[in-house]
Please model this.
Amino acid sequence: MLDLKFIRENIDLVQEAVAKRQDTAPLDEILELDLERRQKVLELESLRHIRKEAARERKIAKETTDEGRELRSKIRVLEEEVRSLDNQIEGLLLQVPNIPQPTVPLGKDERDNPIVRSWGEPKSFDFPPAPHWKLGESLGIIDFERGVKLSGTRFYVLKGLGARLQRAIISFMLDLHTTEHGYQEVYPPFMVKRECMVGSGNLPKFADTLYHDEEDDFWFVPTAEVPITNLHRDEIIPPGVLPIYYVAYTACFRREKMSAGKDTRGIKRGHQFDKVELYKFTEPFTSDQELEKLVNDAEQVCQKLGLPYRVKQLCTADLGFASSKSYDIEMWAPGCSEWLEVSSCSDCGDFQARRADIRYRPASDAKPQFVHTLNGSGLALPRVLIALLENYQQADGSILIPEVLQPYVGQKVIK
Model:
C-alpha cells in the first residue's frame, strides 16, 4: 500500500508509475475522497472545540439541553461520515500498485524483459529429446489419467520414483537454504485468514485466482509468501533483529484463470503445485543488496542441480502488483524446447509492511519505521522437475539423477 500523504504530494509521479506498469488505479477518486475527508475533519474539530468551550463556560452545563443534544448529534454524524470515508479510501488504496524503482527498465510486456546473465550451456543431444510428459508416462512416474480422474484437468499423480524425486528436490532445497544461506525454516498453514491475503497484496486485486472456503473465510495460499508476510503482522521488531530470513515449503493453490488454454500438456501449469519460498524482512537501506543476494541464493539451486538457466530483469509492465523491482530465473527445458520460469525474486519495499503494519525500531529510543520485505522462489516445482527430467534423459529413456540428489533418492538413475 502506498502512503496517502505520499500520493497526495506526488500525484504526478504516482500517475506516471501506474502508466509505466500499463495498469490502472483509482487515483482521482482517492484524491476527491481525501479532500472531502479533510474538510469534514476540520468541521468536526471545530464542533468539538465549540462543545469544549461551551462546557468550560457552563453555557451547556448538561447535554440534555436542546443545544447540547443538537451539537452532540452533529458531531456523531460527522464522526460516522469520517469513518465511512476512511474505509472507502483504504479500499481504494488497496487497489494501487507499488511504484517501480528507477532502475527498472521501461517496457510494455514480458518481451521487454532484458536478460542480465546466464549460466550453463543448453545440452546437445545425439537423439531427439523427449518432453517430460512422454518420459514420465514411459517410466511410470507421472500418471495423468488418474490425476484427471481424481480432480479434473491440470492435475496429475506422481508415482514411485517420481514422487520420491519431487520430495528429494524439496528436501535438498530446504537443506541448502538453511545450512548454507542462513534461512530459518518455517512450516506455515496452507490456509490463512482474509487479512493475511490483504497484507501480502493478494486481496482484493487477485480474488478471482484464489481458492476460498466461504464458510470459515479461509483462503488457500497461492504461495508461502502470504503466511510468511503475516508472521510479524501488527508487530514492532526490536532493534538489532533485522534482517530476518525465512524459508518455507508449501503446496500452492491457484485457479490459473489467466492461462486458460495454455500449456495443457504435461505438468507445467496446475491448480496445485509445490514451492520452496525465500523471504526476507530487512531495513530499508539494505533491501537493494538483499535482493541481489536472494537471487544468488536461488541461482545456486540451479547450479548445484547442473541445470542451465538465465536471469531476466522484469520491466515496468511485467512487475508483480506488490513489487518495486524483480528478477526472474528461467531454466532450459530441451524436451519442451522452452525456458521455464522457476523463480521470481522481488523487492516490495514497504508496500506489504504498510498493509500488514510491520515496523521495526532502528534503535531503542527511535521512532518505529516500516520494514522492507523481499520474496522469491527457491525454487518452484514442478518446473524444476520438468527441467531435470528433460536435461538428464538418456537415449534409452532413462533419467540420470543429479549427484546432489542421489543421497535423497537413494539411487543414481530412473529406468
Notes: The longest strand covers residues 272-282.
